[in-house]
């Protein structure tokens, strides 16, 4: 018997962090699901992004990195990088990234880097609806956007 968040081999599966970075390597969003000292975050982010940016377009979007894996996707000028434990399913994370971008597109009507920079609170709400404690908890776009829809109705009303 194994518990949620563990694979049958007993290794703990989880998302360690989510980064949204522009092509210049500037972090636009970072969300950590396990403790990382603030002093180490900048170096970790820069190194992880450099690792992803240095890869060619025809290379796989999954990279073994230190004691975990990086799964990334590039959308125009933005790159989304997700750090996961070794036991995590890379394809499910790859699809999660795409779903996240589709939710952002639905909310912002074609999301841009400026939308992310000036609406970080909304981005975090969306991410919190999708991922909790490093585990995917929701993928339905309407349910993910429900809290923001309710907030917008209260503001308008």
List keywords for this structure.
157 residues; alpha+beta; two-stranded antiparallel ribbon; 5 helices; five-stranded antiparallel β-sheet
Gist?
With 157 residues, the chain is of the alpha+beta class. Helices cover 43% and strands 24% of the residues. It has five helices and seven strands, in the order E-E-H-E-E-E-H-H-H-E-E-H.
User: Considering DSSP H and I runs of 4 or more, what fraction of the residues is helical?
Assistant: 40-55%
Number of helices: 5
Q: Give me the secondary-structure category.
A: alpha+beta
Radius of gyration: 16 Å
How confident overall, as mean pLDDT?
A: 89
Distance between the termini: 50 Å
Strand order of the largest sheet: 2-1-5-4-3
How many β-strand stretches? Answer: 7
Principal-axes shape call:
globular
Could you name the ranges where pLDDT drops below 50 across 5 or more consecutive residues?
Answer: 1-10
This entry's quaternary arrangement is single chain
- Measured by DSSP, the beta-strand proportion falls in 15-25%
- State the order of secondary-structure elements, H for helix, E for strand: EEHEEEHHHEEH
Q: Please summarize the sheet with the most strands.
A: 5 strands, antiparallel
Report on the architecture of this protein.
It contains five helices and seven strands. The strands form two sheets. It has a five-stranded antiparallel beta sheet, with helices on both faces. A hairpin with a 4-residue loop joins strand 1 and strand 2 (27-32). It is of the alpha+beta class and 157 residues long. The protein is globular, with a radius of gyration of 16 Å. 22% of the residues are buried. Mean pLDDT is 89; it is low at 1-10. The protein has helices at 38-53, 90-108, 113-118, 120-130, 141-156, and strands at residues 15-22, 27-32, 62-65, 68-75, 78-84, 131-132, 135-136.
């Amino acid at each position: 018997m194994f518990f949620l968040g563990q694979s049958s081999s007993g290794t703990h599966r989880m998302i360690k962090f989510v980064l949204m970075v522009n092509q210049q390597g500037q972090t636009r969003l970072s969300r950590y699901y396990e403790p990382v000292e603030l002093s180490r975050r900048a170096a970790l982010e820069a190194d992880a992004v450099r690792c992803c940016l240095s890869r060619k377009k025809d290379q796989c979007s999954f990279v073994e990195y230190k004691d975990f894996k990086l799964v990334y996707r590039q959308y125009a000028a933005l790159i989304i990088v997700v750090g996961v434990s070794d036991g995590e399913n890379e394809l499910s994370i790859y699809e999660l990234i795409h779903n996240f971008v589709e939710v952002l597109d639905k909310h912002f009507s074609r999301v841009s880097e400026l939308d992310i920079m000036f609406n970080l609170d909304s981005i975090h709400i969306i991410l919190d609806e999708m991922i909790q404690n490093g585990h995917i908890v929701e993928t339905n776009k309407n349910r993910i956007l429900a809290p923001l829809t309710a907030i917008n109705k209260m503001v308008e009303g």
